[in-house]
Amino acid sequence: MVAFTLNGKAVSVDAEPGTPLLWVIREHLKMTGTKYGCGAGLCGACTVHINGKAQRSCQQPVDNIAGAKVTTIEGLSADSSHPLQKAWVAEQVPQCGYCQSGQIMKAAELLASTPKPTREQIVEHMDGNICRCGTYHRIIRAIQRASTEA
What we know:
Largest sheet: 5 strands, mixed
Distance between the termini: 38 Å
Shape: globular
């Protein structure tokens, strides 16, 4: 059994050591907002926060997160009122939407450390989170909007 905090609630899961956190979240805990993208830590679709830091959950063995605080897209805000979530809607960011939870979680890390980032800081921080639909200009605008409304 591995015990950790997920979205502010204590959880305990019985998973094989080495099981990626992504699969524990999706299959054991039935929270499907975190997406499987590549399974190799390259795309960012599975990004969650572990102790406040954006991490690729497909690359985090569950046994390494014992005692940690994990936040998924579902835990960012209970009612989708986080400034990033509102900005994502206002800027009509998603096309297919598949990568968006990972994009938002990565952006939330940026705004937590740099509340008023420049465009260059946004581009640098978000580098590595892939959007196959190419909505990067909308993602940047949404992060800029959220930084003014937070």
